[in-house]
Amino acid sequence: MDDKRYLLGLIREGEHQQQDFKYRVADASKLAKSVSAFANTDGGRLLIGVRDDGNISGVRSEEEIFMMHQAAYKFCKPEASIKFDTYHINGRTIVIATVPPSVRRPICALDEEGNRRAYIRIADENIVASPVHLAIWRELQKPQGIMLTYDDEIRHLLSIMRGRQTLNQIVSLSRLPRYKVIGLLARLIRFNTIRWEYDAQKFLFSMV
Fold this sequence. Notes:
Helix content: 25-40%
Number of strands: 10
CATH superfamily of the largest domain: Schlafen, AAA domain
Number of domains: 2
Oligomer: single chain
Order of helices and strands: HEHEHEEEEEEHHHHEE
Distance between the termini: 44 Å
Number of helices: 7
Shape: elongated
């Protein structure tokens, strides 16, 4: 398959969980958000030089390509793994940045002030990871084979779960310290007892 057919096929897919369009790269720190989101979720690719509506604008300068590298290597901590491929179509240059899912989560994006934030990819959006996600990633770094022990705190937390609830609602109802609830939810999600979803710009937790 030639470059043109391949690129047009990708563009027809539109933006989704594993694909994002970037018209141009004016700010490496903003691009790092997409890199962080893909690395922390299922991986994905950035089509740089493609507008949100799918029209091809092309990458205009070597400076933009330099910013892409900066996004991956300077504005992501730890460094994200990323592969850049350059394609030419209708006299314009498109860069595809492919980001695999990371085994060292969270991959954080740095802003211009050096503040770190981890992102996840949900549908076609990059969302700031919740404190529970950060705790889930810590849980996943623990050795395999650990069993879930239903101690008093876990039984208490499960007893107040009603439908879909936000973290703040669960903290309020449980009367446990916030950090404790975050850790318990992460452990229960790891063992498929609790699930999370994102709806109306909120993270919600419920029984499986």
